[in-house]
Amino acid sequence: xxxxxxLAFAQIGExxxxxxxxxxxTGLREVYRGDHITLFSDEPETILRLPAGSGAIVGTLFSxxxxxxxxxxxxxNQIIDILEDxxxxxxxxxxxxxxxxxxxxxxxxxxxxxxxxxxxxxxxxGKMIACASDVSTLIGAGFVRPSVNWRFVGKSLYHVQLPTAxxxxxxxxxxxxxxxxxxxxxxxxxxxxxxxxDYVATDRHANSQQCATDLFQLVSSTIKTWTSCYSRPxxxxxxxxxxxxxxxxxxxxxxxxxxxxxxxxxxAGDERFYARDVxxxxxxxxxxxxxxxxxxxxxxxxxxxxxxxxxxxxxxxYNKIVREAAAxxxxxxxxxxxxxxxxxxxxxxxxxxxxxxxxxxxxxxxxPTVRDICQITGASIWEVIAEAVRIPRKFAxxxxxxxxxxxxxxxxxxxxxxxxxxxxxxxxxxSTSVGKKGHVAQILRALHHIEHRDKNLSVPxxxxxxSQPVMxxxxxxxxxxxxxxxx
Length: 487
Description:
Blueprint lengths: L3 E5 L7 H11 L2 E5 L3 E5 L6 E2 L5 E9 L12 H9 L1 H8 E10 L3 E6 L8 E5 L2 E5 L2 H6 L9 H9 L14 E2 L4 E6 L2 E6 L15 H19 L6 E4 L4 H12 L5 E6 L8 H11 L2 E6 L24 H15 L3 E3 L4 H4 L7 H10 L5 H12 L3 H14 L15 H7 L17 H17 L10 E2 L5 H8 L3 H4 L5
Parallel strand pairs: 13-14, 13-16, 14-15, 16-17
Antiparallel strand pairs: 1-3, 1-9, 2-3, 4-5, 5-6, 6-7, 7-11, 8-9, 8-10, 11-12
Helix pairs in contact: 2-3, 6-7, 6-16, 7-8, 11-12
């Protein structure tokens, strides 16, 4: 993964010597400078400049109007849209994996795309804000002296899999997906420029069959667009639905696809049979590798270089398998189906029944939804109905979230119990259905997991099912369609 560093402060011209020293300390090159901002990167050729010196893009940007390839320069019409309103234009006209700088005369805005595909950590030094791709860069530049934020460590264990702005290192925060920092004379403010609640609806699709067709076309075109950046993908294939969708869509584009699957001694962790079927169907090579206990070092954290308690020990063995497979295949990217269950809303709850009742009232239409949930969960009709009655009382406001109390001190639990969860997505409109609250909560869990990807993997990890257009489309799908057919 490429490294970057962004400095935003009052008058950059007065700090020339400081900037030179930072470049020397971090090994990064200055690639963009505005009146109030400077951008450094170790891969200057990957930086996309916005028109008329209005900012820059770190990462990858695609146009919604032309889903074909990565943007390397803007045409005349795009320039007009961006100059008029860069934040709205980035949100509505584009998508990708990026951190963006909008350089205005009165302030600077730093945005992270809704999928959170590019990391963004930041710290404040007086009136200056420093944002970076990794905490090591912030530390190496001398902006922060690391110390453990023990209260956050407790909160991260208590609020299971919740992505937060706070991190496990004091003084270092994380800019979350869909969020924006505004740095100006009045200080620093954080806000949402993209909210999942703006895309929740139940009346955007004619019927479930047409919706499924449209979703297939969108996922296919989204993955095809990603292939404009990468021509030799390695796919992490389990044989399950999500990774199979990714592999099949990649193969449809005509590029050479290599898949890999990791195998355990336990038959429950051996999905080679399914993975082989997928690769036979799409004409892809399959690399089969076994987890080795020797590759797991319990004295070393899986979360090395990540300021968030995350990961599991067995991931060390899996990460080694992926690195070796990527090297042997000559891959330029690692595609995964991560987040698919979350985005498509694979649920075992009765919330879709509650949503359909609220939308359509007491009608015969509820019967197939009850049957679908019974088939998915194995519960009886009466158990599903009883749970549906309880749900509105259990989740009257906010999002459903699991709390873990084991191994945490009672004093800490007493101080946290009843405290509101701090996340900008935890304030849905009052009219939001319980199913969509559960859906958004699942997407949040997926975004938490992609934060702790393998830092030593030499190629970028791509989670195309978490791409912004796919998330927006799926959020608009009625929750009872997500369980239709009992699958």
